[in-house]
DNA sequence: TTAATTACAGACTTCACATATCCATGATAG
DNA sequence: CTATCATGGATATGTGAAGTCTGTAATTAA
């Protein structure tokens, strides 16, 4: 029961892109160096963000990844859902039983967490701090 | 990023014990039959609950597992912590950086879920419904 | 047109952990 | 003493996370 490291990488990358210039694409090479993760692996993760419509990519020289459209609205939950999927944390027996009290409680608790994550936008944190360090 | 099946078993078992008589110990044999899980495996899970002080066990004939003390106060979170552990869902780089905004937000969101789980007691749900079915 | 650069997709490996199973041991009631 | 019951350790087994490798496609610069 842990968030994957991929989610961590995605959050850091998005934070970094928000703090940097949103105009020019940034190659996965430079994005990976700040986080000590291999470029090919980070690329896999960022492709998920592309498919989720959160960012856009450009092949070829001077290509890379770039924010698009209404990037100010992107929340923590958007990124987490793009990377981890949207399935419930509590999948008992596959079927959703709306009458089950255990099930209801677990979904309700998860919803409380998602509510918090949905109401926090990356851009707000990026504004509050030029956050580029990565300790370890 | 899923709750383990062990947590599911523990929740069902506790719900069952609350609905049944709290006086007599119930053997893991009968507890397991209701959930279609092997007795030995369920025993391992229940031992965690014993060590967490949520229930008590009695060896020998007519032994088994039984609620103890202030069992009315047991919350969802108590059981989940006993089974899954109390570590944070978001463990980046091991160290807790209180100044990191990403870290703060993730902890805050997790706290919202735990708050909900802490404020829901098993006994309340057991009262509302004699809940012993297990579909699959 | 060619070469360099970049993202993308698939196969693959490795590793950690969840999910058990089996068996020996210990405790306890009758 | 014996049947019953929990506990602990060792041991599979399966699944998903984490990461690597390599070829392919797209795009730009020369
Ligand atoms: S009884 Fe409720 S919690 Fe248990 S498996 Fe069914 S729906 Fe899920
Ligand atoms: S989220 Fe913050 S504390 Fe955690 S690794 Fe990233 S920068 Fe460090």
From TrEMBL, chains A, B:
GO cellular component: cytosol
Superkingdom of origin organism: Bacteria
Pfam family, one: Rrf2
SUPFAM superfamilies in alphabetical order: Winged helix' DNA-binding domain
GO molecular function, one term: DNA-binding transcription factor activity
NCBIfam families linked to this entry: rrf2_super (TIGR00738)
Name the UniProt record assigns to this protein: Rrf2 family transcriptional regulator
